[in-house]
């Protein structure tokens, strides 16, 4: 990495993009071997929030009979109030462009307060049912709170909670394991259509946000959720026995692949590009299998066995080449 940085600096100097004095100062600074602990400290802060909120949940579970429901809810409410009091006090208020707290700890206080709010509302509904039998409201309310906190405090972590809550409200679970198992796309095409509709909604919101310049840096998060939800729903339905259904979702996956191919260049997002290729590759193989599933290849199966290793090796080489070309193009 050090050698790469030195070559890059030398290239800038040779192109007269920096002066000789700037080149010397950069070299002297790098010779000090100073490195930043910012990422590591933020990771520990994030883990602290996760462990704290998990500890609250375990405490409630193990002592629910001895502590009492009112005491637990009161404790949660006090902690939530303290978190948001400090956050509102030190925030710069809502702004359309990207903003940050003066102290990074406050960003994780927002996350802690938001997670505890979700726990509070969920526990309140489970024990006292203030929303009656409308359990969807118990999901929608913390989702609305999460969206408000995400945009007011400019917090990406809270935004992921909000989008997850929105997906859960329409019946989706957006963890990788749940997407493949619990959502049961195979049994319910209505759920698949809901997933596609949610993906389109997220994309439209990104387009609208860019038009009005509202937290445009959130766009990549929305698009990442949209890519995963739409692609997995499409791939799951491409194995359907319904011919119309699998052909329809093949077209949806093709359209999704084209859109995210262009969007990955627009945002210069390697993550979007990589997952787009992976989903497109899986979908293409399923499509080929569905096309040739009724053809008898018994006479030439040995040829397929011979070509199969070459196919996978070629796929890997092509994947690496695509990634390298993408990185080169967005770096120029």
Describe the fold and architecture:
It is a single chain. This protein is an all-alpha fold and 332 residues long. The chain has three domains: 1-35; 37-169, no CATH class; 171-295. Helices cover 79% and strands 0% of the residues. The protein is built from 14 helices and no strands. It has helices spanning 2-14, 20-31, 38-62, 64-67, 69-90, 104-128, 135-153, 156-169, 176-180, 189-212, 219-237, 243-267, 270-292, 301-331. Helix 3 packs parallel to helix 6 (104-128). The longest helix has 31 residues, at 301-331.
Helix content: over 70%
Gyration radius (Cα, Å) is: 25 Å
What's the helix-strand series?
Answer: HHHHHHHHHHHHHH
Average pLDDT score: 81
Shape: globular
Distance between the termini: 19 Å
Regions with little confidence, pLDDT below 50 for 5+ residues: none
Measured by DSSP, the beta-strand proportion falls in: under 5%
Number of helices: 14
Number of strands: 0
Number of domains: 3
Report the biggest beta sheet as strand number plus sense, adding barrel if it closes. none
State the secondary-structure class. Answer: mainly alpha
Domain DUF2157: 12-158
Transmembrane segments: 43-61, 67-88, 108-128, 134-153, 158-176, 191-208, 220-238, 244-261, 273-292, 304-323
Keywords: Membrane, Transmembrane, Transmembrane helix
Organism: Flavobacterium ginsengisoli
Task: Write a short abstract of this structure.
The chain is mostly helical and 332 residues long.
């Amino acid at each position: 990495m050090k050698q790469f940085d030195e070559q890059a600096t030398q290239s800038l100097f040779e192109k007269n993009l920096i002066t000789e004095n700037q080149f010397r100062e950069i070299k002297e600074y790098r010779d000090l071997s100073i490195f930043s602990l910012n990422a590591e400290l933020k990771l520990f802060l994030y883990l602290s929030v996760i462990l704290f909120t998990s500890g609250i949940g375990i405490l409630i579970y193990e002592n629910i009979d001895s502590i009492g429901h009112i005491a637990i809810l009161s404790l949660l409410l006090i902690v939530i109030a303290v978190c948001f009091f400090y956050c509102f006090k030190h925030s710069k208020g809502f702004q359309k462009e990207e903003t940050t707290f003066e102290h990074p700890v406050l960003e994780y206080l927002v996350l802690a307060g938001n997670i505890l709010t979700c726990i509070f509302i969920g526990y309140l509904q489970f024990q006292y049912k203030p929303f009656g039998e409308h359990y969807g409201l118990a999901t929608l309310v913390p989702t609305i709170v999460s969206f408000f906190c995400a945009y007011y405090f400019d917090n990406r972590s809270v935004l992921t909670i909000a989008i997850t809550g929105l997906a859960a409200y329409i019946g989706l679970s957006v963890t990788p394991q749940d997407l493949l198992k619990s959502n049961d796309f195979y049994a319910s095409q209505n759920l698949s259509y809901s997933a596609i509709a949610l993906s389109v909604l997220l994309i439209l919101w990104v387009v609208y946000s860019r038009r009005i310049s509202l937290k445009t840096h959130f766009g990549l998060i929305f698009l990442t959720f949209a890519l995963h939800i739409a692609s997995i729903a499409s791939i799951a339905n491409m194995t359907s026995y319904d011919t119309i259904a699998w052909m329809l979702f093949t077209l949806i996956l093709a359209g999704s692949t084209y859109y995210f191919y262009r969007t990955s260049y627009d945002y210069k997002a390697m993550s979007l590009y990589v997952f787009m290729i992976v989903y497109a590759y899986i979908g293409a193989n399923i499509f080929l299998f569905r096309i040739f599933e009724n053809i008898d290849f018994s006479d030439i199966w040995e040829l397929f066995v011979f070509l199969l290793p070459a196919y996978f090796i070629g796929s890997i080489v092509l994947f690496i080449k695509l990634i390298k070309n993408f990185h080169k193009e967005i770096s120029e």
